[in-house]
Specification:
Number of domains: 1
CATH class: Alpha Beta
Largest sheet: 4 strands, antiparallel
CATH superfamily: Rifampin ADP-ribosyltransferase domain
Number of helices: 3
Number of strands: 7
CATH topology: ADP-ribosylation fold
Radius of gyration: 15 Å
Length: 147
């Protein structure tokens, strides 16, 4: 499959009609930075990540920020993929057919084009419940499909 350069790669700036996605994390990034595969994952055993993750829904990005490892502030960045994206099998196909969370992954970098500065976190007890559920899965040896 032939990959075409994005509008941003051609011009160096995002256009108003470029599809923008979200990336929830605790990493400190700035406009123009690239989120690249090969760095330690934000989740689980924090192994070297094969993919970078993005979503078209704010709710999924909020979960990404809330569940990310690290002591930094939770952040949600607006990102633009620089290459092909595909459904994230951890959140689609096998668990949620039809990709209702609009969660994707890519082996190509994501370019940071903005940061969402104001958003509503999930209730603390809901986040704690999700973290406990993930800990139970980890104890059972259930790992991400994205390793």
């Amino acid at each position: 499959m032939e990959e075409k350069a994005t509008q941003t790669e051609k011009s160096g700036i995002a256009t108003p009609f470029t599809q923008t996605y979200f990336h929830g994390t605790k990493a400190v990034l700035k406009l123009g930075d690239y989120i690249v595969p090969g760095k330690p994952s934000n989740y689980g055993q924090q192994q070297k990540a094969t993919y970078v993750f993005l979503t078209a829904t704010l709710d999924a990005a909020i979960w990404g920020a809330e569940l990310a490892a690290g002591a930094e502030k939770e952040r949600i960045y607006l990102v633009e993929p620089t290459g092909a994206i595909e459904n994230d099998p951890d959140l689609t196909d096998q668990k949620f057919p039809g990709n209702p969370t609009q969660s994707f992954r890519s082996t190509a970098p994501l370019r940071v084009v903005g940061e969402l500065l104001s958003w509503q976190s999930h209730p603390a007890e809901m986040v704690q419940g999700m973290k406990q559920h993930l800990a139970v899965l980890a104890a059972k040896g259930i790992e991400s499909l994205n390793a």
